[in-house]
Structures are given as structure tokens and as C-alpha cells.
Amino acid sequence: MSALPARNMKYGVLVTREFAEYTEQHLPALVEELTRLGCMPHNIIVKDIPTVHGLLMGTEFFAEYTDVDGVIILAPSNRINGNLALMNGIVTIQVQWNMVVEIGGAECAEHIVEMIELQNEMEENASVVNKNRRASFC
Question: What is the pTM of this model?
Fold first, then answer.
């Protein structure tokens, strides 16, 4: 990872009232970790979702209506991962929108930054590969 890898990245963070105690304990640490990795505080957008079931739509809204690079669902991962319908929806959003989504607390910060760096690197390399392919057809 580069020195401040998240310097030019923007994150959506979803919290739900059902996990208010978890949010209270983990949101400050998540924001601190993202800023330690270089993310500007104004590039961390926190949205409060009424219920766990709304997290899917919140993730979709971030993907469709904002310019965030990734979404962190701030919630106990075992509670979200155990919800098969929610996880299927999240995976679908990830694939359809090329949106990196992480679930958990502050430990997600480094994971999401690494995945977005990988995505950006592969996207850059893809344009070089595609240019080379087009040149070989001429």
C-alpha cells in the first residue's frame, strides 16, 4: 500500500439504528482509521438507515447516486453475513456497480482501501491492454 492510499478516495458509511450501540463504539475508530490512511474527513459520508433491511437499499443508493469509491456497512459482520437475502443483494450490487463493500468496524478501513487500490490498478492496466489489443488489429 502506498503512503496515504486513501488520499483521493471517498467512502460511504451506512449505520443502522438497530446497531446503535455498535455504531457508537465503532464509528469514531473507523473514521480515525480512514483518515490515518489519508482519507479527508469530508470524503467520509455517513448515512443512518432505519433498519437492517434498509442496508441493501442504502448500499444501492450510494452506488447509484453518489461518487463514493466504496461502502462500509458499520455493523457486526456475523449479523449481516448471516442474512442470506441481504448478502445476496450486496454481492449483486458489488458486481453490477463494481462497488467495493465491506462489513464490520474499523478493521474494514484497510481492507476497503486495499481493494479499491487493486481495482484502480487493474482498471488502469485494462486501458493499456485494450490499447495494445486495438493497435495489434490495425
Answer: 0.88
